[in-house]
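Bug #77: duplicate submission created two jobs. Keeping one. Sequence:
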Amino acid sequence: MTLKKAYITFFTLITICTLTFISCNRKEKKADRLQKFNTELWRKDKNGCFGDRLKLKNTFLSIRHNLRGFKSSEIESLLGKPDAQELYNRSQRYYIYFLDPGPKCQNAKSNPQALFVRFSAVGIANEFTIKAR
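Kept job's structure:
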């Protein structure tokens, strides 16, 4: 084997190892972003019927900027399936999670607060807004 081939092989192995390490480390960092947020309690409060999501509102507001860049599948694994979805122009979409009791609850409010998660056309979360529906 020539010296040139040895360098190419060595460089390729170093590159593969580095990329593997970075990709594994990225998932751990994403999980670390939510340490103080109770995702299990959020998921159990479907449509906001029990009021647990409203209790988690301030905690969520403190971490929402850390969730930018998450894929839609990652948001679903953290927050559960959305209570509603809306399509927007240019293939963008919104996931809607009710904080107050939503329309499917027995104690539904007429204008409930909801978390709107906007996804880009490629499915990346880029905006988190809480407003009345």
